[in-house]
Amino acid sequence: MLIAVPAAIDPAAFVGLDSTALVVDLDGETMGTTWSVRLVPPPRCGLIAIRAAIVARLDGIVAEMSHWEASSHLSRFNRAARGTWTVLPPDFAHVVAAALRIAEITDGAFDPAIGRLVDIWGFGPAPVPGAPNEAAIDAAMRVSGWQRLRFDPAARRLCQPGGLALDLSGIAKGFAVDTVANMLAEHGVRHMLVEIGGELVGRGVRPDGEPWWVDLEIPPGVKVEPLRVALHGLAVATSGNYRRGDHNLDPRTGRPANRGVKSVSVLHPSAMIADAWATALTVGGPATLAVAEVHGIAARILTDDGEGLTPALTAMLEG
Question: Which stretch is the leader sequence (predicted)?
Answer without folding.
Answer: none
